[in-house]
Amino acid sequence: MSHNISAMSNTTPSIETSASEIAAITPAHKRALSYSTTIETLFNQVMNTGMPADRIIGQYFREHKKHGSKDRRVIRESLFGLFRWWGWLSQLETSHKHSTWFQKLSACAMLEQHPWHDVTGAWNDFADWPQTRADQTTLDNQATLKDKLAAYIALSAIESCQITQLLPQWFWQLCPVDSTEQYALVNAMTTRPPIWARAQTLSTAKLITSLKQAGVEAKTSGYFADAISLGHKSINLNEIEVYKQGHLEIQDLASQVIGQICQPNNHEKWWDACSGAGGKSLQLHSLMSQQSTEFSGNITASDIRHKPLEELRKRAKRAGFEHISVAPWKGEALPVDANAFDGVLVDAPCSCTGTWRRNPDMRWLDDASAITDKPMLQLAILRRSAAAVKSGGKLVYATCSLSPSENEQIVKDFLSATSEFELEPVIHPFTGQQFDMLTIWPQQADSDGMFVAKMRRK
Questions:
Q1: Among candidates 431, 337, 353, which has minimal Cα distance to 393?
Q2: DSSP 432
Q3: Among 11, 241, 260, 400, which is most buried by a count of CB atoms within 10 Å?
Q4: Would you call 76 helix, strand, or coil by DSSP?
Q5: pLDDT the model gives residue 292
Q6: pLDDT tens profile 350-375
């Protein structure tokens, strides 16, 4: 199927038409106008408040129960599509504010290849594209990012558009990417990754069978035995029995790399020093419980926020995991005993640039300070947490950032100030190559981006 933009016909009213004329237009045009108003309101709310789009749209849907599943899909996917392509769309300008907005919606729908043609057709009409430009914009389902760039330039007449503009300039300055990988990275950033999950207390095969029976497009990852792709469609987890029973946890594939690198043994004591809601604590427990010998180890989870730790308690209870306890950070004092752990995981607070595929709004809400403000804190947390590692124990440092200043540089600065730890090489799970420190790029396995380094106390 191809996506084609038509110029506005003479019989279709423009956005400035009177109320009586609007009353006479088609139901599709009325729906398109209503969607447009809602999407614009939400978009402006995100940009003006700096709050994450996910939170704003979630709050909106809770307050507006009238929207059916198609309404929610049109609004959500259009809103996130605008952020994915904003590096190009923000350059559109016309003499009429309303026409400009409809051109952005129309161009976004073309680039995203949205399937609701009644709505996108109406947006095309209101956009009032010149006929000669609109005729050059057909895209089929096999369209590449280069095809989309060519179609967008033909439609917008903005010849200066470049693929790298889809990520902010400060990103390229602070997250250097080899020129041979830039296209692949941006290509990944303009698409949504699948929902990734992890088998927890049932076999992967049984889970996939159960998920398919529930209508979920589940399949194995090809990388980890317990990793499962749930496809791209939205899923109401509260309707999935295996999730409610704790047999399944949602965790991105790149995030799952961290637990695999930790390689926990089920007799070991592990400390998850920046646990958040405990996704990696649960993964460590799951990996330990899969081993054939008796489970005698444990995991302690810490965070400065109490709410995520409460969420971890609920998740651990749901899964029946009894070897996880919590120890909140209270000030700078270590919340656990020093020299007591076989393994310490420091999943440090970071800029989250590796999660931009799922959160495209953050590309435009954040600025360079999202990266430059973090290293001092990251190094302090790593140094403090390292005190809990016993002799011969493992220290794993991780972020979901793509910036060397938050990643390799932190590890180098840490190691340069101590002779007690040394790097352990790690194997890239998606390429099989060995590295001193590992960056998972979003384009490598259809996932988020991640960084991990593994050290051992001498």
A1: 337
A2: -
A3: 400
A4: helix
A5: 84
A6: 999 999 999 999 999 999 999 999 99
Q: Is 397 exposed, middle or buried (0-12, 13-18, 19+ CB in 10 A)?
A: buried
Domain boundary among 144, 166, 188: 166
Burial of residue 11, with CB atoms counted within 10 A of its CB: 0-12 exposed, 13-18 middle, 19 or more buried: exposed
Q: Is 332 exposed, middle or buried (0-12, 13-18, 19+ CB in 10 A)?
A: exposed
- Which domain, by its residues, includes 370? 253-457
The span from the CA of 458 to the CA of 455, in Å, is: 9
Domain boundary (166, 195, 211) is at 166
171 inside domain? no
> What per-residue string of b and e applies to 165-202 under the rule 16 or more CB within 10 Å gives b?
bbbbebbeebbebeeeeebbbbbbbbebbbbbbbbbbb
| Residue range 160-183, pLDDT digits in tens | 999 999 999 999 999 999 999 999
User: Considering only CA atoms, which of 267, 3, 202 is closest in space to residue 111?
Assistant: 3
Q: What is the pLDDT of residue 371?
A: 98
112-138 pLDDT, tens per residue? 999 999 999 999 999 988 887 777 677
The end-to-end CA distance of the chain, in Å, is: 60
Residue 411 backbone phi and psi in degrees, to 5: -65, -45
**What whole-number distance in Å separates Cα of residue 268 and Cα of residue 266?**
6
State both tokens at 176: 């250097």
Write out the E strands in 268-316: 269-272, 298-301
